[in-house]
Write a structure and sequence with these properties.
Blueprint (H helix, E strand, L loop, with lengths): L16 H14 L12 H8 L3 H13 L3 E4 L3 E4 L12 H6 L17 H15 L13 H15 L8 E4 L2 H12 L5 E5 L3 H9 L5 E6 L2 E2 L1 H6 L4 E4 L13 H10 L6 E5 L15 H4 L5 E6 L11 E4 L2 H11 L8 H12 L2 H16 L1
Parallel strand pairs: 4-5, 4-7, 7-8, 8-9
Antiparallel strand pairs: 1-2, 3-10, 5-6, 9-10
Helix pairs in contact: 1-3, 2-3, 5-13, 6-13, 7-8
Length: 367
């Protein structure tokens, strides 16, 4: 039953009103206050209660629709389609093959490429302003400047709160996969999506780990396979898993988080390419949704800037950041200091985010 006088806009919160409203309604859906099938308050009712325009309320509901929490029904309103107990049967190989093809990181459309002129200008400026500083040795987990820039970017754009000491810079995803095995241990049982990016399986096997293959369903890993698995580490690509193109729904993402509540379980969230979602807001991350401090978040600049840079990063749970320092802190950073300074400048001056927003607008216009 709808509880009046509940939603409020916090004037001290720097995030837009529509995002605040979106989060409040989303949390009520996840908590079961609005169960599956329930009708949500009308846009007018919501706007009056929260003290915002109906356009703001509509924008909030639009985001909930984008992420699979609710659906709009013509002349009827908005209804909850999220369910914590959702489970989906695995799709056949023929169904997987019928899904839209997903490009590899090297196959970047021309209108999605990072502007070379901007990159070249930034490289020259860093070379001129930093001078011989580009020859200095980076900290083992990456320069403080880049880690701080990534920390700020993730907080604003992805809702991820992470101290720079939780961030580790490395030369691409494959290198970071190996570090994860070194951190978590080879004696663990790892599970990955099937099908998935081939190099994930190859790197794990090269590290003396034979991953368990969990079949993908229409919106993520098949529920029966997930809960039957003996895995302690689950490696997932929630956004447009390659090569299937499957994106995990809101229900499935929360199912992954519930799975990880088991003792000692860890999720590796491989968030490749999600910045280019056509949604009106960035995709939700499991790292930001989870309250269990057991998600390792990974991303790279291969898709957003260039695969030639070979720069990736991972955000460790707080409890693993110190353990990483003890176990693997002796590893030198594999990304040149110069490239790290260039990325720092691109993120800090807004060029990186402007490029992402430009590409997302173009993709939405084509959709």
């Amino acid at each position: 039953m709808y509880n009046q006088m509940k939603y409020r806009i916090d004037e001290t919160d720097k995030s837009p009103a529509y995002l605040q409203l979106y989060r409040q309604v989303r949390d009520d859906i996840v908590d079961g206050i609005y169960p599956n099938g329930a009708k949500l308050p009308s846009k007018r009712t919501l706007s009056l209660e929260a003290g915002v325009s109906t356009i703001t309320a509509e924008h909030s509901y639009s985001l909930l629709c984008d992420e699979g929490y609710v659906e709009a029904r013509e002349r009827s309103g908005y209804f909850v389609i999220f369910s914590k107990d959702d489970g989906f049967a695995a799709v056949s190989e023929n169904e997987i093959r019928s899904l839209p093809p997903v490009r590899k990181s090297q196959d970047v459309a021309k209108d999605e490429q990072f502007p070379f002129s901007v990159l070249a200008k930034t490289m020259r400026r860093v070379m001129s302003e930093v001078g011989e500083g580009i020859l200095q040795r980076s900290e083992n987990i990456g320069t403080a400047q880049l880690r701080e820039a990534i920390s700020r970017y993730l907080l604003v754009s992805r809702g991820i709160t992470a101290d720079p000491q939780q961030i580790v810079i490395g030369s691409g995803s494959e290198y970071l996969y190996g570090l994860i095995v070194g951190l978590v241990g080879r004696n663990k049982t790892y599970a990955i999506e099937f099908p998935s990016y081939k190099k994930i399986e190859q790197v794990y096997k090269a590290c003396a780990v034979t991953p368990e293959m969990l079949p993908l369903g229409s919106d993520g890993i098949d529920s029966k396979a997930l809960w039957k698995s003996k895995a302690e580490v689950l490696h997932i690509t929630p956004y447009r898993s390659f090569p299937s193109g499957v994106t995990a729904s809101a229900s499935k993402r929360h199912e992954y988080i519930r799975w990880a509540e088991g003792k000692g379980r860890i999720i590796v969230e491989d968030d490749f390419e999600s910045e280019f979602t056509v949604s009106k807001k960035p995709e939700e991350t499991l790292f930001s949704l989870s309250q269990n401090d057991n998600v390792i978040y990974m991303n790279t600049f291969s898709r957003t800037i260039s695969p030639a840079l070979r720069v990736g990063y991972m955000v460790l749970p707080k409890r693993l950041a110190e353990e990483f320092s003890h176990k693997l802190g002796f590893y030198s950073c594999t990304v040149p200091t110069y490239i790290q300074f260039v990325l720092t400048e691109l993120i800090s001056n807004g060029d990186f985010e402007r490029h992402i927003n430009r590409v997302r607008r173009k993709k939405r216009n084509k959709a």
